[in-house]
Design goal:
The protein has 76 residues and is an alpha+beta fold. The chain is 24% helix and 34% strand. The chain has a single domain, classed as 2-Layer Sandwich (Alpha-Beta Plaits). Strand 2 and strand 3 form a beta hairpin. Bound molecules: iron/sulfur cluster (SF4).
Length: 76
């Protein structure tokens, strides 16, 4: 498991939802159609610390690369 922090730049997110396709466990759109990071408790926010497996990290990295507005970042 790796501890990472995932952040969403809410002003950059254009609700393209590509992140939901790549890593549906960790991203969802909030009521304003802005992506939220979802933690292990199911709570969403623009910045969350996550404990992830290598496969989950890969899925989140795919979400970072697939976001058309570069709104997602990972801090290790
Ligand atoms: S892929 Fe990027 S722009 Fe699309 S919902 Fe996710 S964070 Fe927002």
């Amino acid at each position: 498991m790796a501890k990472i922090t995932v952040k969403i730049d809410s002003s950059a997110c254009i609700a393209a939802a590509a992140c939901l396709d790549s890593a549906p466990k960790f991203f969802r759109l909030d009521e304003d159609s802005v992506a939220n990071v979802v933690d292990s408790e199911g709570d969403g926010g623009f910045e969350k610390e996550l404990d992830v497996t290598p496969d989950e990290l890969k899925a989140i990295e795919e979400a970072v690369q697939g976001c058309p507005s570069s709104a997602i970042s990972i801090v290790r």
